[in-house]
Amino acid sequence: MSIIEVSHLTKDYGHDRGVFDINMTVSKGECFGFLGPNGAGKTTTIRHLMGFSKPQVGTTSILGQNSWQNAAYLQSHIGYLPGEIALPNGMSGSQFLKMMKEMRGIENDDYCQMLLDKFELDPNIDTKQMSLGVKRKLAIVTAFMHDPDIFILDEPTSGLDPIMQQVFIDYIVSEKKRGKTIFLSSHIFHEIDATCDRIAIIKDGRIVSEFQSDELKNTTMKTYRVTFQDKDSYQQFITLPYQFTSQNEAKNRARISICDEQLDQLIQDIAKLNVEDFHEIPFTLEQYFMKFYKEERVFEGVK
Question: What backbone phi and psi angles, to 5 degrees, belong to 78?
Answer without folding.
Answer: -115, 145
